[in-house]
Amino acid sequence: MFQKILIANRGEIALRIHRACQEMGIRTVAVHSTADATAMHVRLADESVCIGPPAARDSYLNVAAILSAATITGAEAIHPGYGFLSENARFAEMVEAHGLAFIGPTSAHIRMMGDKIAAKAAMRSLGVPLVPGSDGALNTLEEARAIAAEIKYPVLIKAAAGGGGRGMKVALDESEIEEAWRVARTESKAAFGDDSVYLEKYLDRPRHIELQVMADTHGNVVHFGERDCSLQRRHQKLLEEAGSPALNATERDALGATVTAGLRKLGYRGAGTLEFLYQDEQFAFIEMNTRLQVEHPVTEMICGIDLVKEQIRVAAGLPLGYGQGDIRFTGHAIECRITAEDPETFAPSPGKVTQYHAPGGLGVRVDSALYAGYTVPPHYDSLVAKLIVHAPNRAEAIGRLRRALSEMVVAGIKTTLPLHQRIVEDPEFQAGDYTIHWLERFVARVPEL
Ligand code: ADP
Fold this sequence. Notes:
CATH architecture of the largest domain: 2-Layer Sandwich
Number of helices: 15
Number of strands: 20
CATH superfamily of the largest domain: ATP-grasp fold, B domain
CATH class of the largest domain: Alpha Beta
Structural class: alpha+beta
Mean pLDDT: 97
Bound molecules: adenosine-5'-diphosphate
Distance between the termini: 49 Å
Radius of gyration: 21 Å
Shape: globular
């Protein structure tokens, strides 16, 4: 097992990884920008190295500085967390070229799944159901028109290199296709330096359901069940649940069997998430994320496992040591993403946190790097805390979430806490009756927070 791991990230996820390492007796190296010198992940780590100025491209994306930090501290492995360099195949290659272990999949698999067209082609060959659409990249607008006419409008033009909901445009009918084609390509070129796009049928009332998988280097692949991440705004997740209120165990097991068999064939290693749209009792694959997800805690709560420890064990070459039949799902878990944003306009709200109180009690978990007196810097993602509850069933989990939200205090900055408080009171949410479009309508109809 590794003696020392460098955590190439910040905020709550850097802390999350540090905690797993501590429990395994592994020493940690934090890296940080000059804006994060007093951040909690730096305070708690065994060692820390400043890797550059505030802008992420000069610090958390600065590969040379991160590799130097690993070398001078004698770290044997790097955990990338999520975001930043976590899905950068070149980074994974360079980590390994420096004789260090990359805690994640092989660079070949990161590259394959990072290109959504290649990912869909791989899944098609493995028998995983897909959203209908173009078989590959679209070369011309005429091609887009022809496929859209065949599969019928509405359709979505999506960036092959897409992420974070960018480079995605809907065309409701023929009159909108040219504009969608143009905007998706321009956005994709600007955000990802690549204007390859493809086309998918736009599903009008799907849920977003994803499957958590884990594979070791000995041919064992298991899944840890599904998460329902349908509550989204601008294709960004806000609240997640495990399991999905819409799925039964038979459907989950069937999907899990197809997916794990496919990944075994592929020789996949490490943690991964396959994202699906689910409508009319049909699953359709949209993309695979080759890293730990923000919402992984809801899975940990219902499975009683630590996904970060599993990632580390697998990266060290250890076998999983259990099979699918050993994995049990207990109760229900819900996570609220609390961001430093205005709960009505979603404008960023960085600044000094004057008071901070995290809720507690049975079945309550808070993953956050906040503390009273901490200044949330303006340079990074606005996620400041994740509140996770676990209870024997969904109704009790909602009651627990309502109680925990009422105890939580983050003063000095605006956060999305009031929005979550409204969501838990909503009868449709309570009934589990929602699709990916529900939250946008909810935000529009709640007059004041
Ligand atoms: P990204 O990588 O940018 O997050 P995804 O392909 O994962 O993009 O899609 C993000 C979200 O966009 C999905 O969770 C879903 O809400 C919506 N979406 C994506 N594809 C479709 C589709 N074909 N029909 C309807 N909604 C879609």
